[in-house]
Amino acid sequence: MAVITKIDYGPILQRYNLTVNYIEEKSRNVVKIYTQKGVFALKSIENVQDLSFIHHIGEAYNKGFTRFIPFYKTMDGEFVVNQHNKYYYLMPWLKNEPPDERSSAYQQLFKMLGRFHTVTSEELTYNEEDVTQHYKAVKEKWEKRMEYLEGYIDRCENKLYMSPFELQFTTYFNEMMQASQFAKARLEEWYGQIKGVKKFRTSLTHGKVSINHLLYDDQDRAYFTSLEKVRKASPVNDIVSFFYRTLRTYPIQSEECVGYYNEYNEHHPLAEEEVQLLLSYLTFPEPMYRAVINYVDAKNSKMSEQQSVANLVRTYWLNKNIEFVASQILMQEQQKKDQKLAEELEEETLE
């Protein structure tokens, strides 16, 4: 752990009227500051355009969501300090140890995420041309990827001897195509449904949802941190990115992730068309496609043959883990529809 001299950050910390005992570097953009007034986190960001998240956090506060780690103002009332070609902002230093068992921490995470999306939710009447353009763009991008993979497997199978990577790819190809077709079918379903409701929801999204981005104060109250990616988008984006990171592991049927999804829906129920959009984004085998591209484009790849094979296997595991979660979500949605239909038929019978 590197110790940084006071003079590096002296002009910045003076703006907050802090007397510094010492400073520890925690990462490239985070330093821990020990002062006479307590312990603080000083974070930095390089691009001024990325500071828009501060405005979004203020918007969330005004709407009633306050579970963000607060920012301290300088003595002259500013949230950021421009120094050394970077923008710095000061926050309290909180612990990252959940008070209860880890499963409860994940439930807390999705409870907070659902409330965050609900409080900042905005329902908009969509521009049909924009929605159609988005649908066509995503569909065309996926179709081009599938065409590329189909061409690549032809080249592999026409070789007298395949490399270990190519051989591994051919064993996965059919499942990749099945995942692609499933994702396209969900996209088609979303497009048909969104044209019917003629509205869509946006929320402020965290952008980097992770259990590691949930910190706790002395009273064990949880707060979101790592807020630099907060922006307005479809709330399903946060769920997709979380599953992508969490399920990137060894083969596992993650009932826990299904439970997290259900916890989220308790606090921010997704509409039918939003579920279809979630499933389409989640299940398209983009990581496997990227693994192939990185291997074929050897000029930009720093991985050996063995490393490339291992990378492909890991993306395949991710795809299979996602497949299980997606199948459970789809099954639950079908059960909801069946139950609703049964209730409607019962009401008609009683009438």
UniProtKB/TrEMBL annotation:
It comes from the Bacteria. GO terms for cellular component: endospore-forming forespore. Transmembrane segments: none annotated. Keywords: Capsid protein, Virion. PANTHER family: COTS-RELATED PROTEIN (PTHR39179:SF3), SPORE COAT PROTEIN I (PTHR39179). This is Spore coat protein YsxE. The lineage of its organism: Bacteria, Bacillati, Bacillota, Bacilli, Bacillales.
